[in-house]
Amino acid sequence: MPDVPSQYSEKVMEHFKNPRNVGEMENPDGVGRVGNPVCGDIMELYIKVKDGIIVDAKFKTFGCGAAIATSSMVTEMVKGKTIEEALKISNKAVAEALDGLPPVKMHCSILAEEALKSAIEDYLDNSKKRGRAAKR
Amino acid sequence: MKKVYLDNASTTPLLPEVREAMLPFLGEDFGNPSCLHDWGDTAREAMENARTEVAQLIGADAEEIIFTASGTESNNFAVKGLALAQQNEGKHVVVSAIEHFSVLHSAKTLEKWGFELSLVPVDRYGVIDPEDVRRSIRKDTVLVSIMHANNEVGTIEPIKEIAKVAKERGVVFHTDAVATAGTIPVDVRELGIDALSLAGNQFYGPKGVGALWVRKGVRILPFLDGGVQEGGRRAGTENIPAIVGLGKAAELARMHMKTRIEHLSRLRNRLLTELPNKIDHVVVTGHPQNRLPGHASFCVEFIEGEAMLMLLNSQGVAVTSGSACTSRALKASHVLIAMGLPHALAQGSLLFSFGLDNTSEDIDYVLEVLPPIVDRLRQMSPLYAKFTKTSKGGQ
Ligand code: FES
């Protein structure tokens, strides 16, 4: 059996063993739910936005060590960022922040990027709806 | 930290007696068994002793044993060599859906070479129905290859009955006995088979050595062309230290098989019953009774295997998983999928395989460290959250 654990950087292991921001969020402003087409794993990401700035983020992930570590890292990275800045966070940036991922695990970081994008889209949709509701 | 090795299905450790037996052949007894001088004689004699031991382990004749470099090589050799030797009679082979990749991929290679391939299904315990094998056999079938026991879920197949079906139809039958030879009784005549693969590192012998048994009179295409080693079927200077180790391991396995099985079954039975009591939503994979003595496999619902494996490793416990995330191909275990397990459940696969050194305390330790790991990962799992919400909502 391949020895995947030893291929992870210390930072990945650290985030995997002590993930930040685990859990669901009460009344989130945006929720992203994505599935990994490669291995079938699932990530959910919640964000809270105030005045165009992401003030909090949380996640739930069904997946491997890399998926959990990238979820943890991406939630750390988005906090305090504006929506525009957060949209620019790429899977590569998340992987780099974790001192890299084994090539076979890069797709797990794509899951993190997509979960974030989808949460932001959901937030933008919600605020459009709210805007329309307010005008009426 | 406590260290508990529960991955004997991947490889067993080398027994000290086996290492001792090998050492002279890594030192002064370095001769090439093909040579006609004292050095050659010493090596040849040791090799032939080993051949006799391996033959005795499986109830075969020594001259029917071909040494190879691994179980994988034995399987490649058998599947390709037996099919190709008969390709004038037909070009159809039958294997099961849960074979080891060394059989499955060899069969796929045959497909590329113009053969046709039928995959026999399994039931939810991973058992192959001999009648399904019968249905798969055609006029032009030249080979049936079905494993003796599955390495991932531990299920032991009804090989005697399957071999009978093949024999009735006059088809050559090979079994991959890598998981069973040296572990449980295997007698090739009693099973009524034509060819069998085994590997040394599955029963406390060295890595890098295996054997293929082919019944006298059954044709097989040579695997490596060259000199006349191994009856001209597998050329190349033999790996004498490893072969000697394999012979010693075979001898010890034959002598101590009964007590080993008792020891391993006791540990396995305990984990099979106690783990599902300790952790909710755990299913045993494979057959509940007809399974390898040291083999306890499970699927833990709502979480993924690699994450469990790594957290267990950080507590000193070594296991494996059939999760897609642990495979380089990122595909769920073909064995679990063939058994009809949903993909998400297969992701939670965990395999504990016991060895001679394991004790009941090792199980105590697993039962102590695993539940909090499962809890922790479930707290992170969106599938678990969904499950708890809907099951509460349903009440
Ligand atoms: S989530 Fe499956 S490999 Fe990472």
Tags for this entry?
heterodimer; A: 136 residues; alpha+beta; 5 helices; B: 395 residues; alpha/beta; seven-stranded mixed beta sheet; 42% helix; globular; binds FE2/S2 (inorganic) cluster
Task: Tell me what the structure shows.
Chain A is of the alpha+beta class. Chain A contains five helices and three strands; from the N terminus they run αβββαααα. A three-stranded antiparallel β-sheet of chain A has the order 1-2-3. In chain A, helix 1 (10-17) packs across helix 2, helix 2 (65-78) crosses helix 5 and helix 4 (91-97) crosses helix 5 (106-135). Chain A is elongated and about 60 Å long. Chain A starts with 9 loop residues before the first helix and ends with a helix. Chain B contains 13 helices and twelve strands. The longest helix of chain B is centred in the middle third of the chain and has 39 residues, at 240-278. Chain B has 395 residues and is of the alpha/beta class. Chain B has a seven-stranded mixed β-sheet with strand order 2-8-7-6-5-3-4, sandwiched between helices. A three-stranded antiparallel β-sheet of chain B has the order 9-10-12. Chain A binds chain B through residues 1-2, 4-5, 13, 16-17, 19, 22-24, 33, 38-44, 59-65, 67-68, 104, 107, and chain B through 7, 10, 302-304, 306-307, 309-311, 313-314, 320-321, 323-328, 330-332, 343-344, 347, 379-383, 385. FE2/S2 (inorganic) cluster sits between chains A (36, 39, 41, 63-64, 66-67, 105, 108) and B (324-325, 330).
Outline the fold blueprint.
The complex is a heterodimer of chains A (136) and B (395).
Chain A: H1 10-17, E1 30-35, E2 42-50, E3 53-62, H2 65-78, H3 83-87, H4 91-97, H5 106-135
Chain B: E1 4-5, H1 16-22, H2 38-58, E2 65-68, H3 71-85, E3 92-96, H4 101-112, E4 116-120, H5 130-136, E5 141-145, H6 159-168, E6 172-176, H7 188-191, E7 195-199, E8 210-214, H8 240-278, E9 282-284, E10 295-300, H9 305-313, E11 317-318, H10 334-338, H11 343-346, E12 349-353, H12 360-380, H13 382-393
Parallel strand pairs in B: 1-11, 3-4, 3-5, 5-6, 6-7
Antiparallel strand pairs in B: 2-8, 7-8, 9-10, 10-12
The structure holds FE2/S2 (inorganic) cluster.
